[in-house]
Amino acid sequence: MEHGTPTITIDFFGLPIMFDLSTSLMIVITCLVVFFVLFFMTRKLAVRPTGKPQVLVEALVNFVKGMISSNMAWKQGGKFHFMAITLIAFIFVANIIGIPFTIILPDADHTLWWKSPTADPTVTLTLAGLMIVLTHYYGVQARGLGTYVKSYFQPMWFMAPIKFIEEFTYNLTLGLRLYGNIYAGEILLLLLVSLITTGGVLGAVGGFIPLMVWQGFKLFISAIQAFIFVMLAMVYLSHKLSDDH
Amino acid sequence: MEFLILGNTGDVGVAIGSSVVLLVSFLILLGALSYFVWKPLKKVMDDRENLIHSEIDDAEQRRIEAQRLQEENEALVKQTQADISAIMEDAKNQATKEQEAIVHDANTRANQLMANAKADVEREKEKAILEINDQVAELSILIAEKMISKEMDHKDQQKLVQQYLQEAGDK
User: Fold this and answer.
1) Where is the protein localized (chain A) (predicted)?
2) Orientation angle between helical segments A200-241 and A121-150, nearest 10 degrees
3) Which of A164, A167, A165, A222 is CA-nearest to residue A189?
4) Residue A97 DSSP one-character state
5) Does residue A211 belong to any structural domain of this protein?
6) Total domains present in chain A
7) Is the pLDDT of residue B89 over 70?
8) How far is CA A26 from the centre of its chain?
């Protein structure tokens, strides 16, 4: 079950920058899918909506608004609204884009081209890192540098190292939770597909039902993980924004 | 799995390029979605919220206005009804008064007419009696003339008849 990864390394002023081509491609595809789906769903906007698309997108917008306001005052959290909706839409689509099919080239490496971009830890950790950096940025902006630094020494000064490490564990847990869920799902999908394609009649019959069940379950996991990721990002943000933590 | 390389110093490095691609793509996606989708959508949703607020305010105002108008109308109806009763009462009184006046007037005039007629009749009667008296006198003279035939002159005869008549009238 070893799959090759198409990579290309570009020398950037002496630093070798490696691109995972399949991940990069899937990121771009995900972005395009998210953008165009939402774009075409909101072309006929009306104060009194006439079709389902607008209602659906508005439901998503309101859902994310609820997530933010359950963590912080809307006056503070309102500016993260667009980012949070974009994030949840991106992660959800990134999670489910690997479900319907997979593309593995029939070369020696079995190069895997089509997959969920969130099944790549680089992607999830980058997203998590972006969120953590944002929390620090807005934490300093909202409370001032002094209060921000002081918060590391509260409630006790000797807790500072733990608090400091905590920031990195936030990043790791946020990113790896998403990665683990989606990657495991992808692996199981690939296993089931290979069971069907190589297991003969018995494998095909025995693998088809579990494959469908797993695809449905993965859809569920995808939604849940997108929700959890954005929810936790907002929780971390509210921790940094408010004074009581 | 060569992806699990946190702290890995092997020949495969971290795909930093993927991070860059993700960051750039995500920020572009964020910008594009914000501009093309979220902003117009938020505007529509805010418009709706404002519309609902203003409609509720409007409805409240209209309700108060309607209540005010209703009270006004009720007062007006009451006032009008009172006016109508007063007018009717006045008209009734007026009519009664006029009726009485007319009846009174008619009575007076009728009495007057009756009195006049009575007087006229009386006068006519007297006149007729006088005339009859004269004629009777003349007739008597004629008769007497014929009866006496030239025994007395006309003047003496008349004097005598006058005397007789006077005596008859005195009786």
Assistant:
1) Cell membrane; Membrane
2) 20
3) A222
4) T
5) yes
6) 1
7) yes
8) 13
Mean pLDDT over the full length of chain A: 86
Taking the alpha carbons at both ends of chain A, their separation in whole angstroms is 46
Kindly state whether residue A2 falls inside one of the protein's structural domains.
Answer: no
Is residue B9 pLDDT above 50, yes or no?
no
Residue A92 within a domain: yes
Tally the residues of chain A.
245
Per-residue pLDDT for B133 more than 50?
A: yes
**Is residue A178 less than 8 Å (CB to CB) from chain B?**
no
Q: Give A73→chain B minimum CA distance, Å.
A: 18
pLDDT digit string, tens, across residues A150-166: 888 877 888 888 888 98
Please name which of A124, A108, A104 lies closest in space to residue A222, comparing C-alpha atoms. A124
* Res. B153: pLDDT tops 80: no
Decide if A1 is inside a domain.
no
Predicted local confidence at residue B119, as pLDDT: 93
Which residue range(s) make up the domain with A72?
7-241
- The owner of tokens 């698309």 is A53
User: CB–CB of A194/A134 below 8 Å?
Assistant: no
Query: Would the CB atoms of A28 and B25 count as touching at under 8 Å?
Result: yes
pTM of this prediction? 0.73
What's the rounded mean pLDDT across residues A58-62? Answer: 92
Inter-residue long-range contacts of A45-53, CB under 8 Å, 24+ positions, other chains counted: A45/B40, A45/B41, A45/B44, A46/B44, A47/B44, A47/B47, A47/B48, A47/B51, A48/B48
Sequence-separated (6 or more) residues with CB below 8 Å from residue A142: A76, A240, A241
Q: A119-123, A179-183, B162-166: which range is least confident on average?
A: B162-166
* Model pLDDT, residue B79: 96
Give the SS3 label for residue A44.
coil
Residue A242 and residue A184 in contact, taking contact as beta carbons nearer than 8 Å: no
pLDDT at res. A153: 83
Are A70 and A197 a contacting pair, CB within 8 Å?
Answer: no
**A47 with B3: Cβ contact below 8 A:** no
**Do the chains contact at B19 and A122, CB–CB below 8 Å?**
yes
